[in-house]
Design goal:
Layout lengths: L11 H8 L3 H8 L7 H14 L5 H8 L4 E6 L3 H6 L1 H16 L3 E6 L6 H9 L5 E5 L7 H8 L3 E4 L15 E4 L1 H14 L5 E5 L5 H13 L8 E3 L4 H13 L7 E4 L2 H13 L9 E6 L2 H4 L7 E4 L2 H17 L11 E3 L2 E3 L5
Parallel strand pairs: 1-2, 1-3, 3-4, 4-5, 5-11, 6-7, 6-8, 8-9, 9-10
Antiparallel strand pairs: 10-12
């Protein structure tokens, strides 16, 4: 192994001389090109390792037309992203899979429509090979902005609103939100609960809509007064729970919350009101974020989705799209991953 701490950087020519091949052959191997026999490619890789050769990224980009970077676009304010462990797990999955593919993560915030021009310029400027977009809102033009940039993209969650048609052109990864919600409500029905309420998430996001539909699939005749709206934050879960307890429909004996944070807020409010969980009110969440679900008292029964795994799948779909030829090629199909009810002691 060469001493990499001093002296000039090894060149392609030096690797070629060590391996006994042409400079062009070394370039093809280093840049992932085809047409090099396996024994020859192995000799080149051995020479690369022995000399400590590091490809020049700028030159490599000219050959591969790849930047080695992927934009991760989150359509939420910074304070929301840093306060919600869902995003941390999602980005962790993306980051770990990008490392496998030797790509860098470039994080882009979208606070509102004023950011769209900036995002469009950046994506269209050749800075990244593709984009992963999370937390899409129905009224948001972000899907159209991403599509218009011309870079290959994968969405986290089924798109809706102005970009609804884009779900046929751009692959996405989502969990079985509706099926998971049905499982949660059926579990509460199986416990003998008869007044089952739902704390729904933001109605401009398809995940929240699908979970609301799952609730209604099982309880089509439920009193509309047993549904309250939140925004996926713990505080909104508190407020929604207070509204349910004080509402004209009467207090529920069970609640299915559309995510774990809202469930934790509901649990806090129930305890403040002197109600016991699950004796007085059974409670089920959604996501199975261990930092939330396992730390509540009692621990939260919830619907598990593989948040980190879905982030990894998004990267794999994007890499498949890049290999297929980019934005103009027929990309891979979208993926819906299964959900599982995790029973703890809140229900």
């Amino acid at each position: 192994m060469a001493d990499r701490s001093s002296g000039p950087r090894p060149t392609l020519e030096a690797v070629a001389a060590r391996a006994g091949v042409s400079r062009a052959t070394v370039s093809r191997v280093v840049n992932g090109g085809a047409g090099v026999r396996a024994p020859v490619a192995d000799r080149v890789r051995e020479a690369v390792a022995e000399l400590g050769y590091v490809p020049n990224q700028a030159a490599r980009s000219l050959v591969t037309r790849r930047s080695g970077a992927v934009a991760v676009i989150i359509a939420e304010p910074e304070f929301r992203v840093f306060s919600d462990p869902f995003f941390e797990r999602q980005v962790r999955g993306v980051s770990r899979e990008l490392v496998v593919h030797d790509s860098q993560l470039v994080l882009l915030w979208v606070e509102g429509p004023d950011d769209h021009d900036r995002i469009a310029r950046y994506l269209g400027g050749g800075h990244v090979d593709g984009a992963l977009a999370f937390s899409l809102h129905e009224s948001d033009e972000l899907p159209s902005v991403v599509l218009g940039s011309g870079v290959p993209a994968v969405f986290g969650g089924r798109p809706g609103g102005p970009g609804a048609g884009s779900e046929h052109a751009v692959p996405y990864v989502d969990c079985d939100n509706r099926g998971g919600a049905r499982a949660a409500v059926r579990h509460l029905v199986g416990l003998g609960r008869t007044r089952i309420a739902h704390i729904a998430g933001p109605q401009d996001q398809t995940s929240a809509l699908d979970r609301l539909h799952g609730y209604r699939d099982v309880l089509p005749d439920a009193d509309p007064g047993l549904t309250a709206l939140g925004d996926f934050t713990a505080r909104s879960g508190e407020l929604a729970m207070a509204g349910l307890l004080d509402g004209s429909a009467g207090a529920p004996d069970a609640v299915f919350a559309s995510n774990d944070l809202m469930a934790s807020g509901a649990l806090k409010l129930l305890r403040e009101r002197g109600l016991r969980v699950p004796h007085d009110v059974a409670l089920v969440g959604f996501d199975d974020m261990a930092s939330v679900a396992e730390s509540t008292d009692p621990p939260l029964t919830t619907v598990r989705q593989d948040i980190e795994g879905n982030g990894r799948l998004m990267v794999r779909l994007l890499m498949d799209l890049l290999e297929a030829g980019g934005a103009e090629a027929a990309g891979p199909a979208s993926l819906i991953t299964p959900t599982t009810l995790v029973r703890r002691t809140s229900a």
